[in-house]
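for the writeup, i need someone to sanity check this before i put it in the appendix. the sequnce is what the collaborator sent (i think, or maybe the updated version? ugh). structure was predicted straight from it, no edits. if anything looks off just tell me and ill rerun, i have time this weekend
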Amino acid sequence: MRHAMALIVAAGIAATAACGDSSPSSPSAGSGTLNVRLTDAPFDDARAVLVTFSEVSAHLADAAENSWSTLPFADGGSTRTCDLKKLQDAREDVLGVGQLTAGHYTQIRLTVASARLYFDAASAAGPACAPAIAAPAGSNATVEVSSGQLRLNRQFTIPEGGATTMLLDFDGGASIHETGNGRFRMTPVIAVVSVQ
């Protein structure tokens, strides 16, 4: 009896140790990597166009209606700000990247939290997208975001143990309109350029 109990305890310790070996950064079984990148044809009348995203998520096919998985922002921030002016001329930067359940997806959902135009100075040297970007000096204007949530109906597959990269084009010129008296409104126009 004591021998049997010792075996059960030893098995429990081994199982616990095995669970503790998994690293959060390593791919889990049944998952793959999704990398969402952003490029832009920007709004011409400003020197910096800072757009802050509060969420990027993907919908798994053949799952419940609320089966949206949130994709972590690159660099681990709770939001991610991109200067659309730095994303022109075929330049691109990472919006979100991380592990999601492997399988077939039907949609990407983006939530734009805020946007602001800067007319006198460009943003400081550095990446186009970051957890935060310092506001340039000079005159600026808040952009009213009329519909901050956008769903892109594009099917794609994340292979188990593999990676999928999606490139999105945020068309700043088509998204931002002056409404008069120095006021601006944004209805985000974003297209899927490629999925690889």
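Residues 1-26 have pLDDT under 50 and may be disordered. Residues 2-20 form the longest helix (19 residues).
thx in advance!!
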